[in-house]
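Format is chain and fold; as here:
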Amino acid sequence: MLLRVTDLSYSYPEAPSAAVQNASFSLDSGEYLAVLGSNGSGKSTLARCIAGLLKPSVGSAVFDAPAGKVPCALVFQSPADQLVGETAELDAAFGLENLGTDQSEMVRRVRGALSLFALDTVADLPVGELSCGLKQHAALAGAMVLDPALLLLDEPTSMLSPAARASLLSFLDRFHGEGGSIMHITHDLEEAARAERILILDDGRTVFDGPSSAFAAIPRSSLEAWGLASPAVPQAAVPEVPAPASPALSPALSAAPETAAAPSPLLSCAHLSLGPLSGISLDLYPGTVTAVTGESGSGKSLLLSVLAGLAEPAEGSRTLAPGCRAALAVQESEASLFAEFAADDVAFGPRNSGVSGKELVSRVRRAMDLCGLPFDRFAERHTFSLSGGERRKAALAGIVAMDSDIVLLDEPSSALDVRSRAQLFSLIGSLRAEGKAVAFTTNRREECAWADQTIALPDPPPRTADPAGSKSALCRTSPLTRYLLTLSQVFAAVFIQGPLFLAALLFLEFIPLRASRYPLKKLILGIARILPWLALIVALQFLLQPNVYHSAMFLLRFITLYIPLSVFMHLCSHTEIMYGMEDLLKPLSFLGVPARSASLLVAVVFRFVVILKDESDRIVLARKMRGGDRKKSGISGKIASVASLFVPLVLRTLVRADRLAQAIEARGFGTGKNSRYLLWKRDVRALILNVMAPVLAIILVWLSTFVRM
């Protein structure tokens, strides 16, 4: 027996009831178990308890894994929460480093995992630049590379295109056929049918645990009660609508009748081009629904951003009918939630448009009820205590409550159960009946049957990997030498006396600057951006102590500090920063200093700077879509505007920090072992530069203290 779960229960703080209640089951080695349940039934909580990321309030989950095997690898429901490394390649290697895997073995396994999930050509891209589908692939690669005894998947296909989904399911079949153990959480009954055994949760309790053959005999009334079927949508597959091979529109069922009384489009786009989008033309008419399909990276989300007016096309035009408004529900639903309570978040948009009092309450209630998030049950629920599917419903409700003429939904059915998907398309039907133009992206071909017209975006062109030779010689030196080079120049910039010696240091700094291939234009623009603040500081300093010499020294000293730090950040990835810090701290290990933990903390800080910027951008975007970007007059108005950004950013920071900590723990950190994925070959020219630059910097400091010029 591989896993035994005994009377496991878990309750979140301040939650009215337990998320998981008295779950008991076992899993044999080589078994394929599918876990079904409606949104909020406790599936993800159960997975995190099994993976050891949450400590059960009661009961236990115990593994008996084969020797040398990682007991469990969990793929999170939201892939963005799981990625620790700054690229798909380094993220896949992170877990193996924590297990102390040999470097040559790491390279073999990482390359195999990247190839398995078609990440070869994007392996060196920052994870923030990957589409949601590719982030999902990267999360899968990071789990599979660990060679776990149990592969625990939390809705792994929710953001995948049909081709990618078919490829993953085929892989799971092969993995299981080779003796692999799988616990697959899903909302898809077709996916669940591939498993040998099915477990169903309802309101945190196990209501079914048996073979797939027995699942077929469950009465439909029970499936409906558990959220696995809906009276509104028959279980038979909806007839598939063939999608065109080009980005042209498929025949529109309700678009622009060829009569004199033809309605005018609410939104008209002609020959749009931006990124992967090329020559897209479409019209959105009142009372019509448009579906957009395509592989990951084809530009589905980007197209909706252009339609919403959030992105300007490089070519082509976008024309919005007078008085019309467009509202967009983004793919990563959590980005749209920034109020503490669900009802307050849904009310944000209409409140900004001037709605108040009973009308506001009525509109919020209607939107939440239409989106399958009953107002009476969820109005006072904390937004970040909602499940993944419930957060998506809250985000949809926030857009519906705005009562916009054009409603744009990016992957609205992702992470929704069968009943909730039926409610979603019932909602879309209601919006169409009200005369609104609705456009949604989807990875499910059968959902196109609900649309009046379909746009199939062409596959993105393959990306070629950057050649290894494009890196500078300094990039091929060890992080420790880069640290020493930077620290010596910073030390010199702080302690050198006299403007001529500082000028000499500035000249010396241009040698590694050019050797690193740091763009000179980027350096100048960086200094120019902060020049007004520098000028203000110099002016204040001059007013307090009128001395041109001191002002000149301040400016020179700042520039000589700015250059080496900029070059360092250009040369080092977050992983290399961690490696270099660990090497710097290693001599202190005999004093009990945890070099590995401290170095990881430094890397996490740099990673979190990127995360905070992303979160801030998403909050600003969500506020803009819901009318929260209007400038408020007066000091109190400005303070309120800043506070409205600060509070949700703090909340999102706490949530992301907790999830990043769980992601690090889930990848084996803390085992006491570690190895390194990246190795560096010795480059004679770079080695000479790394030795001579610190020596010359120290000589300049020494000379400046004895020679007054």
Q: What stands out?
A: The domain at 3-225 is CATH 3.40.50.300 (Rossmann fold). The first helix runs from residue 43 to 50.
